[in-house]
Amino acid sequence: MTKDGSFKKVVRHHAQDTGQRYTEALTDLTGLGARMHHEPAGERLLAHLRARHDIDPIAATKLSVHKTYVFRIDRRDGESWVARAFPPARPRAGVEGDAAILRFLERQDYPAERLAVDDAVSDFEGSPVLVTRFVQGGQLPDSTEKFAMMGDLLGRLHALPQDESIKRPGGASGEDPSREGAPRQDLLAALAFLDAVDTKVPDADRERFERLRDKVRSADDGEGLPEGLLHGNLLHAPDHAILSERTPVAINWKASGRGPRLADFAYLIWGTGSWNPRRPDQERIDAAVGAYRRHIEPTDDELDRLEALMYIRTLYLTCFGYRRAILNGSPFDEWWFIRPPEYFRSTAAATRAAFRR
User: Fold this and answer.
1) pLDDT digits over 277-302, tens only?
2) What is the pTM of this model?
3) What is the topology classification, in CATH, of domain 139-356?
4) Where is this region: Disordered (predicted)?
């Protein structure tokens, strides 16, 4: 079979796995990189904000560790803002949804970033822009205390009352704007990352590649578990939480929405582990559990499925890294996201024990 024929076969299988038509699956795979990458010009963004909001901005500085479209906006006439000029592939409705959730969180006095102005969403060169107030602060402490802070943030968030204005599904990373929504979208995105490079996989790596793809296909997406308002990416990276003078503050709400609350908590628990060798860290687990359960007591079903849900985001990250390595022609060194399986089992068991003490 020719390489072109092989790719057509991959597209057909991708369509079957994702429930798409062939043309949709083809677009899903061939347009992947363009949908995710966006690097706007800071000077033009300043001009847009000046005209749109009647402010006097003087500098746009890239702020995010991982995102090229997030800027700190310093002003002569007031406090600094954050401007997120999302990839053009992200619909404006998604950004309006971010703003709606931030308004809800402000009404609930939840420690999150705040909108900079009432009309915080605008269009800039085909890109939807969201402006929030810059949160002055630093990184969370690199200690057990960090996991207590994050557990408390998640517990408070999941315990918030349901609100008719917050209906959209959330929990997926959504780096590909076409894969925003419930945690299942992370698994579909992971399949797209793999399928997009299927025909480029070295023969020596084929068996391992197929095992990874089968694991993604069979992963538990959390359907049927108790739901809450999810942040979708609240671990401990500086892109997602800041320690202000008063309290930890959750930022970057692109992945937020309603979904199985365990998906949020499982990702945090995965991050508690020690390294070299990889093993559970009981103190960090106890800190996260103790803080979270002040607000939420998981059900038996949630605790039973904890190990399985720890794989959702980690499979996504593994597949994201695999695609990047294949395209860059570099060795793939990110299997550690899902290794060893004993770590997942023992960490889930230690977490269940902590909740049941």
Assistant:
1) 899 999 999 999 999 999 999 999 99
2) 0.94
3) Aminoglycoside 3'-phosphotransferase; Chain: A, domain 2 (3.90.1200)
4) 162-181
